[in-house]
Amino acid sequence: MSGLAMPKPDDATMRRRDEIVADMRIIVPGEGVVDAANSMRAFESDGLTAYRQLPLVVVLPETVAQVSRVLKYCNDRNIRVVPRGSGTSLSGGALPLEDAVLLVMSRFNRILEIDFPDRIVVAQPGVTNLGITTAVEQEGFYYAPDPSSQIACSIGGNVAENSGGVHCLKYGLTANNVLGIEMVLMNGEVVRLGGSHLDCEGYDLLGVMTGSEGLLGVVTEVTVRILKKPETARALLIGFSTSEQGGQCVADIIGAGIIPGGMEMMDRPAIHAAEDFVHAGYPLDVEALLIVELDGPGVEVDHLIGLVEAIAYRNGSTTCRISQSEQERLSFWAGRKAAFPAVGRISPDYYCMDGTIPRKELPHVLAGMRELSEKYGLGVANVFHAGDGNLHPLILYDANVPGELDKAESFGADILRLCVKAGGVLTGEHGVGVEKRDLMPEMFNQIDLDQQMRVKCAFDPNHLLNPGKVFPQLRRCAELGRMHVHRGQVAFPDIPRF
């Protein structure tokens, strides 16, 4: 796994592998247990394919009771567990561990309830993101979060990573569209958070779980809100001679009080790759391309299109094309949705980053990335959610050239440091996983990290769920509660200790 440091395998667990596999077959009978090395290759990595590791065993449960029994079995025997959805994570969040059970939730693939009056869908975690929209679109509804991997990514994984997509600017991330979940704790206990109601009192544990990257529990059911499709949706395809002009146009659109349904941006390398791949009709003589979608009542959309067009020209746009049909609007998005695979045609490998910055810093950060590209001698294609400042630089490299992967990783780390320095954060929707784990101190001090770890300890005191992810060092929960003793006295000795 390259030079990535992961938790040391537990020798006692490794020696008991045959016994553990046999017990897993009792809990999950039939074809629900995979233990042959060749068969487990399909699960050795997630979307961050630079890191690979075979698990101890792969288990594919079909019922909540099976999930509960697997987790309780592992908890009682101090066996680590790595939850996995569809495996599209780009941060290594589902990277297996050599001594861990890989708990794959892909067999939980049914929609359990559709309630149009209350505008909710109850789905198992293995249902694909796009599958929810497909199930309700005949009644004019859809599920708003739409990551580019929506045809494959699962709703459970969306909850784990708090996924977004091109329309999250107006309609929110997964956290804004999930109403409730059923989950299983590491000790096997089944609990429910939220439900079909809009909100509830008490601590926002549902918010804690959304984006928790499999460290706190395993989701077995998700209740999401669905929305009515807008009456009208039209898009503008706007070209600029510099990325800085495009970035300023984004800031000016938001500053004018206009909240588009989606606002995406690509630079020249990404534009050319996408056009060659999809033939969407993108202009090839521009340095930056902005896609702005406006939706709502027809009269409102027409008015906003005029405002956005005027803002674009004030920022020096060289071309502005407005969709005249639904087919044309979809063609604008086709290139953006296919940008990642398209870039794969122009480079043997690419490394996808995920930093987020304040919108006003977009020109500065893009200029900084160009300087880093020259420093490392590696190309970069930029595709990003311009409206909310979520950047997805694609670093181009060749893994067959010795040292290029290491160089790409260093380049990516410097991009994320640049984002944090500009007032941003390490991740917008891909999660921390292993990719950004060791960069967490760039954004948080030790007190911050300890407080986050205490939340982890409240759910999983033995640190058995997805260890080695998110936190830069593996520590026992007991270490966080140590009391400092000075000259035989603890601090504040009059306070009762429990």
TrEMBL record:
Per UniProt, the enzyme's principal EC class comes to oxidoreductase
Question: Which InterPro entries does the record associate with it?
Answer: FAD-bd_oxidored_4_C (IPR004113), FAD-bd_PCMH (IPR016166), FAD-bd_PCMH-like_sf (IPR036318), FAD-bd_PCMH_sub2 (IPR016169), FAD-linked_Oxase-like_C (IPR016164), FAD-linked_OxidoTrans_Type4 (IPR051914), Oxid_FAD_bind_N (IPR006094), Vanillyl_alc_oxidase_C-sub2 (IPR016171)
* Residue ranges annotated for the FAD-binding PCMH-type domain, each copy included: 51-229
GO function terms (MF aspect): (S)-2-hydroxy-acid oxidase activity; FAD binding
Q: Which UniProt keywords apply?
A: FAD, Flavoprotein, Oxidoreductase
PROSITE patterns, per this entry?
FAD_PCMH
E.C. designation(s): 1.1.3.15
Q: Which domain of life is it from?
A: Bacteria
Cofactor(s), by name: FAD
Alphabetized Pfam families for the sequence: FAD-oxidase_C, FAD_binding_4
User: What is the protein name given in its UniProt record?
Assistant: Glycolate oxidase, subunit GlcD
Q: What is the originating organism of this protein?
A: Mesorhizobium metallidurans STM 2683
